[in-house]
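Quick one before lunch.
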Amino acid sequence: MSFFTAEDETFRLEVRRFIQTALPLEMRERNHRAYHPTRDDVVLWTKALQQKGWSVPSWPIEYGGPGWTVRQRHIFEEECFLGGAPELSPQGNSLVGPVIYTFGNQEQKTRFLPGIISADQLWAQGFSEPNSGSDLASLRTRADRDGDHYVVNGQKTWTSEGHFSDWLFLLVRTRQDGKPQAGISFLLVDMKTPGITVRPIISIDEGHSLNEVFLEDVRVPVENLVGEENQGWTYAKVLLGEERSFSAMVPRCKMEFERLRRNASFSRTSRGRLIDDPHFAKRLSALEIELLAHETTTWRVLAEEESGHAGAMPTSSIIKIKGTELLQQIELLSVEALGLDAMPVYPEEEYREALPATMPGPVHAVGVTSEMFYRRAATIYGGTNEIQRNLIAGTLLKG
Amino acid sequence: MQFLPDEAQSMMRDTVRRWVEKDYSAEGDSTLGCDPDRWAFLAEQGWLAAGVSEEAGGLGGNAFDLCTIAEELGRGLVRDAFVPFAGATANLLAQIAPGSDLLQELLWGGGRPLLAHSEAAARGEQLFIETTARADGDGFVLDGRKDAVLGGPFATSLLISARIEGEDGITIFQIDPGQPGLTQQSFRTIDNRSACNLVLDGVKLASDALVGPRSGADNALILALDQAILASCAEAVGAMEAAMLMTRDYLRTRKQFGSEIGKFQALQHRLADMFIETEQARSIVLRAIDAACGEDVAQRQRLAAAAKSRVAQAGLFVGGQAIQLHGGIGMTEEYGVGHYFKRLMAFDLYLGSGNAHLERFAALQQAERT
Ligand SMILES: Cc1cc2nc3c(=O)[nH]c(=O)nc-3n(C[C@H](O)[C@H](O)[C@H](O)COP(=O)(O)OP(=O)(O)OC[C@H]3O[C@@H](n4cnc5c(N)ncnc54)[C@H](O)[C@@H]3O)c2cc1C
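Model of the flavin-adenine dinucleotide complex:
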């Protein structure tokens, strides 16, 4: 059985061939090491895709996308991952872009969409705050109207890629009374505006992708408000749904599983290769079976999306939970498979661009442990797995 | 079976805990991974000698004493390579060189000899080594490598395990870290400690480099490695308990949706599971300590394997959930709950993974039955 048609498979080959020719070799190696992508790599790759009209794969044709089917989008994402391409900026591509073309006005579309398509403008997502994570609606960063500007004060945190982004999309409070959800607005902010301070947060993989963003009397022109004032929550909810379905992580799970399998053929035991060890093979197989089931569930969700009538169940929550937990299991086994070669720190800044002359372990060990540490966050970002389970149970119990 | 520390052990535990909380600081440590003055203090306190019998030159304690100290060091994520020195090396020397100057220096200060045995391909198979020694006139020539020797950069001499060509059994050779033919590559471990790989390329040694019996260190090595496994399990239990309590405190203070997140039953159950796992881990360690204090060598090995297997499983669960229940803040290098997870991951990799020891346990059980 395959979910994909013959045409889909032809498309897959086309994508694969393009990646093989267009993606620079060093970039592929860097990304196979799975460190955080750099701005340069993201920009370069997005521009290469733009030549083909593929740089915003999920967008409709009228806004500059390729107008692909759900299946084609999935194939594209998978081939990019497996081929070692850097991830396209999810903030621009999957989050703020769709909000702008769905809820923004014509002027905003003209002004902002081209920069996302070309990666001339990279975006960061400023939703979470120190005291508003799962309970996002309680956010306190406020925007007060002053003539034709909003004056923004507050703090955002966990802002991925904030240190190299040009623009920030913010949820801010524009009304203090009433239901918390009903006083939130969606603002687009140039990160060069005076009053914005970005501070790095180093995560447990010893890498830097996260930031705190402090906003002090930041003046934002009112024309940067998306949609209507106090309606931002409605727009964000649409976008958070989007964030969950790209978190399916099937491609990433596959990539990491392949890396695990490859690495296990390099690891030696007293009896030969680790990959040939029956105990290890059994554990690898258990993960592979889980991956098959997970991939199929994801296909079912895609088919549902394609047919246009989504069921009542929050299926995107299932694939978010399964995808992230499976990824973590694969990555734990990857570390274990490396054995003592997983012990050294291979610091991102010394290993990302090129490998140093002497290393405390083999090339294939580089990046495995830090990736595993970073992906502990996979069950936290994009709506924590506890929140997703609440959603599933809540829907089931409602009947 | 001893469940709780006796009076002297309680006092020692409290002293170690106070030292870890009040005086221990890894700031300013050199790349050696430990500060020589701090190490001298540990020796002075008798902590390095705690698990070694009086006849061999130690303080006369047993595995319970050793594990009591290790647990406190694990609780505080102390970086010092206590287990490799005071667990593995001290135990080995107490068996093959009791009363020796080498052991005296290790236990009471003056020198830091370290067993360098681990090789990547062994994956927990304790006697699997590929380092060889060739007789050469009166002496020997060593070739091979050792991987991820925890504490290696801090050692003043290295005790290399090797097989003499044409002989069965393992021999221990003492080598100076500066010995020609020996290359030492130091690195920082994922849990921020110091280790090194060693490459031995035609290292020439005189006959007096031999420590203990020629080609007869096998059984002593197994016991010493099991002792180290046990002590590292105790460190892990300390780390788990600290991570669990830190998470409990966070659930009491962090507010979302208008209440402490500890009010959410999903998180209450998870915290309860973290506690249960920690207690299961503690129980298996106590059982293994009991076996280590007994005479039945087979039982001792089985339970060391059982402890490693069970504690590793519990450790990854507790460490992982500690991050999870903290949310984003748990992911930061600065906040620190993630450091427990890193230590528990490194613990799993040290001396054979939990799964490797599960297989070892099964094999030992089968051997016993047939
Ligand atoms: C690597 C990473 C990248 C991120 N990138 C961005 C970004 O670019 N932009 C952005 O805005 N945000 C980003 N985030 C933030 C992310 O969305 C939040 O971390 C997430 O929403 C959780 O919020 P919190 O961290 O405050 O945890 P909390 O909400 O405080 O949660 C703590 C724990 O309580 C649990 N919990 C909370 N409420 C409930 C409940 N009702 N029932 C059961 N359990 C509950 C959670 O599941 C969690 O285990 C990122 C986070 C990470 C880790």
